[in-house]
Structures are given as C-alpha cells and as structure tokens.
Amino acid sequence: MNTSIKLIVGLGNPGAEYANTRHNAGADFVMELAQQYGITLSPESKFFGFSGRGNIQNRDVRLLLPTTFMNASGKSVSAIAQFYKIEPEEILVAHDELDIAPGVARLKIGGGHGGHNGLRDIISCLANSKNFARLRIGIDHPGNAKLVSNYVLKKAPTAEYQQIEDSLYQATKVIPLILEGKWNDAMKELHTK
User: Fold this and answer.
1) What is the extent of the structural domain holding 156?
2) How many structural domains compose the chain?
3) d(C-alpha 37, C-alpha 63), whole Å
4) Residue 96: in which H helix or E strand, if any?
5) Mean pLDDT along residues 157-177
6) Residue 50 to residues 14, 30, 79, 186: CA-CA distances in angstroms?
7) Judging by DSSP bridges, how do beta strands 42-44 and 133-138 pair with one another?
8) Which residues does the annotation mark as catalytic?
C-alpha cells in the first residue's frame, strides 16, 4: 500500500457504561495514541465524534473517536473524510476482532466486514469502498455466536484486559512505520511479537 494514512479511527460505543469493554478496543487504541503523542481529542459535532490533529513522525495525522454507536460508525468516518477530502485508502480503522486472541494485534489492508457492525457501516458510508486499512485488536471469541453481543459489551477479566492493553501499546509502536508507508516493516514488527 503506497498511500499514506491521514486518518486513524478508533471504534467503540460512547458512554461510561461501555468504557473498557472489549468492543471499545479500537477506541482505547486511539486514546492511547493520542496520549503518547500529545494529541488533544475535542468534541466535533459535525463529525459526530471526538477528533484531533497532530504530528507523528513528522506526518500530519487526524484521530477520530466516533460518538455514534458502533453500528453507525460510518456516519462519523464519512463526515470527516468528506470534509477533509480523505480517501478510503488514507484511513486506518482500529477495531476489536473476535477471531484473534487477546494480546495480539494484526494489520490488514482492505477486505470485508467479517460480521463487525462498525466495519459494515463504514464500508456502506464510504460508497461501499473496502479499501481502508484495519488494525484488528484481538479479544477472542466466546465460542458460540449467540454469546457474541453480550461478550463484546462486557469488560474483560483483569489478566485478559492487560493482554489487550499490551497489544494496543505494541500497535502504537508501529504507527510511525505505517505513516511512512512501510507496511511490510510494520506488519513484520507487529505480527512477530
């Protein structure tokens, strides 16, 4: 992927009751990134979320935390993308991933939504483009599809939450490589942890 990333989005649900739940792993990632690089996230009603702009590795980048609910994330992403003329290829979406174990984060370019309602809505709102990059943060699967919605909206046990936090921290370390367009290096570093 040759395009440089201009927007990093962290998916989650708004409100204190969803803070630190498995489904908010993407939002937690963007908050960690903002903290590390001193980027202030401020409410932006026109983008239906909190956004901030900062400099990472001499690259100008915007961060976005949608305050829509997860299944309406695309409303926020498309609003900011249209306003700043950001193409789908210039967007990285961080989200929770059931098919990956806690403590593991994986990068992926393009692809379907894999049943993730946030991704499904973003694809729909970006004129059905699937060409954005993803940071998939492992939260594991409860083992039964019927248990998924309850599982993702719960806080992980302490040891598991620590694993997820560790993966978020490791993922922040490869963001400078991603912003330089060094996807292979970023994947190699993140995926061999």
Assistant:
1) 7-191
2) 1
3) 11
4) strand 91-97
5) 94
6) 11, 11, 12, 26
7) unpaired
8) 23
Average of pLDDT values for 31-59? 95
For the CA atoms of 6, 29, 25, 85, what is the dihedral angle to 10 degrees?
Answer: -10
Q: What angle do CA 80, 124, 71 make, to 5 degrees?
A: 80
What single-letter amino acid sits at 9?
Answer: V
Average pLDDT over every residue of 82-100:
95
H helices of 49-131, in order, are: 73-83, 117-125
Instruction: Indicate the pLDDT class of residue 57, thresholds 50, 70 and 90.
Output: confident
pLDDT at 3 over 80: no
**Per-residue model confidence as pLDDT tens digits over 179-189:** 988 999 999 99
Q: Residue 163 maps to which CATH number? A: 3.40.50.1470
* SS3 state of residue 136: strand
Provide the β-strand partners of residue 108: 134
